[in-house]
Write a structure and sequence with these properties.
This protein has 145 residues and is of the alpha/beta class. It is built from six helices and five strands; from the N terminus they run αββααβαβαβα. Helix 4 links the parallel strand 3 and strand 4.
């Protein structure tokens, strides 16, 4: 299994969010080449600004695995995590974070700057299926204008 394969799974979650008129961001948590949790934005549905795809997926992974730490897991997310989600990833001690498109307006880099927001042992990979992830966001916001 490749990073591209799992990012496609995160994109499936993002499309669910799109269909539910949520900002189309999706996430999956993977361990040993197996998806252990999925999530997509649910902020409108739950009336909860913290119900981001990453938060939903991480919480599902904690519950599924019975652990608050995920050092052997990878979080795949279609868009650069915001500072809140980067903080949740930090506290989970997740082994890897892989994201597709950058988010200049709301991504962690806007608030973290040069500071590393993830756990010191977390590996970061970005740009996986970047165009597909970005296009879904563009399509969503274009349809709202």
């Amino acid at each position: 299994m490749t990073d591209e394969y799992f990012m496609m799974q995160a994109l499936k979650e993002a499309r669910i969010a799109y269909d539910e008129e949520e900002i189309p961001i999706g996430a999956v948590v993977v361990m040993n080449n197996t998806i252990v949790a999925r999530g997509h934005n649910m902020t409108e549905r739950l009336n909860d600004p913290t119900a981001h795809a990453e938060m939903i997926a991480l919480t599902a992974a904690f519950n599924s695995l019975g652990s608050k730490y995920l050092p052997d897991a990878t979080l795949f997310v279609t868009v650069e995590p915001c500072s809140m989600c980067a903080g949740a990833a930090y506290w989970s001690k997740i082994g890897r974070v892989v994201y597709g498109a950058e988010d200049e307006k709301n991504g962690y880099k806007k608030t973290a700057g040069a500071n590393w927001p993830f756990h010191p042992k977390t590996e970061l990979v970005y740009g996986v299926l970047k165009e597909e992830c970005a296009q879904l966001m563009k399509d969503f916001f274009k349809s709202r204008r």
